[in-house]
Design goal:
Elements: H1 13-20, H2 27-45, E1 53-60, E2 70-76, E3 87-93, H3 107-114, E4 119-123, H4 133-150, E5 156-166, H5 168-181, H6 183-188, E6 200-206, H7 225-229, H8 233-238, H9 247-258, E7 274-279, H10 285-297, E8 302-307, H11 325-343
Parallel strand pairs: 3-4, 3-5, 5-6, 6-7, 7-8
Antiparallel strand pairs: 1-2, 2-4
Helix pairs in contact: 4-5
Length: 351
């Protein structure tokens, strides 16, 4: 089940050279940038809302008033009201470098997927640096618990779930998939998976932060403080580099801790089929190629849509902007992927 605009094993020297000229971006400047572009993205990405989709906004999936614990449900018009078969459920986590972003910017993206014949759940979550990766995963898992108990009322099938996300949201979706299937990873985060592994039918990755090894390579755009930010305070403090004499040890310690946040390290043959979209213009391109190769090593079915440098509309997370022909191709392929995996018998055993 592999197809691509470009062979993922082709060289990407131009992209690497361009990224090599960039200095590492610190967390604070990323947050400042996202604070400026976020409101504009919500307007730009959501123009001309679809009218053949029903919208339910700001549903609480945990019993508190936090906007981080809210989700939206988008369904094809009259889904599940005519006694027909329950639809597959696509649960989506927004990106934003973990520190930023909001589900509201992804409303039109999610509506496009709902129009393709699925129930879409667009979820928020608590964000670092105030909260760490454990909090994020527990929120994502709580959103799945809400899906398991409530999505039938919206015409969705709680036993046919596809997880997805862009950038940091893709990492959350992939790591939650791994934690659902790998007991040792779930135990690391004291996580009790909300759904059975065999109910996860697929995984969608848009320009995902799926391989943390790239953070430790020279020329990568994001600083190591993004990795430290995701750790509990004690772990982040132990990995702080305080002098040239302790730097190598601190970096090795940080690499070990990053392994628990890097989905690629937890892949095995139990993973559901995966749909990966990326491009040479994406600064996470190498991470996505690594992920694809690892999936193939484990004989996990993987479908790919990969654009090369000449496609100017394929900067990082271009998939959110419905106006691009390249985004429309993502949507067509995603609809076909969900249709395929929702009918495919899975070999996973229940947890």
């Amino acid at each position: 089940m592999t197809s691509a605009v470009r062979n993922p094993r082709n060289t990407f020297s131009l992209a690497r050279k361009v990224r090599g000229l960039l200095r590492r971006v610190p967390v604070w400047s990323w947050r400042l940038l996202m604070a400026g572009v976020g409101p504009r993205e919500r307007v730009r990405f959501n123009r001309d809302p679809l009218t053949d989709v029903d919208y339910v906004h700001d549903v609480r999936y945990l019993d508190d008033d936090a906007s981080a614990h809210q989700l939206d449900v988008l369904t094809p018009r009259n889904a599940g009201r005519d006694g027909g078969k329950a639809l597959p459920v696509y649960v989506y986590f927004h990106g934003g470098g973990w520190t930023s972003g909001d589900k509201s910017a992804l409303t039109k993206y999610c509506a496009n997927q709902a129009a393709g014949g699925m129930v879409v759940v667009n979820a928020n979550y608590r964000r670092p640096p105030r909260f760490h990766m454990g909090h994020v995963l527990h929120d994502a898992n709580a959103a799945l618990a809400w899906v398991r108990g409530n999505i039938g009322r919206y015409g969705g099938d709680p036993e046919c779930v596809v997880l997805g996300g862009d950038s940091a949201g893709g990492q959350i979706a992939a790591l939650l998939t791994a934690a659902t299937l790998r007991e040792e990873l779930a135990a690391h985060y004291s996580l009790h998976p909300a759904v059975a592994g065999h109910h996860l039918k697929g995984l969608v990755q848009h320009c995902s932060v799926v391989d943390f090894s790239v953070f430790f390579k020279s020329g990568f755009i994001m600083s190591l403080n993004f990795v430290r930010m995701l750790l509990p305070p004690a772990g982040a403090a132990r990995s702080r580099i305080r002098s040239p004499f302790t730097a190598p040890e601190a970096v090795e310690r940080l690499k070990a801790q990053a392994g628990f946040m890097s989905p690629i390290e937890w892949l095995d043959g139990r993973f559901p089929p995966v749909f990966v979209t990326t491009s040479e213009r994406d600064f996470l391109y190498e991470a996505n190629l690594n992920f694809i190769s690892r999936l193939e090593e484990h004989a996990v079915p993987v479908d790919t849509l990969i654009y090369h440098w000449s496609n100017a509309n394929t900067e990082h997370t271009w998939q959110q902007d419905y106006r691009y022909p390249e985004s429309q191709e993502v949507y067509r392929r995603l609809h076909a992927f969900v249709r395929m995996v929702s009918q495919r018998p899975m070999a996973h055993a229940p947890l």
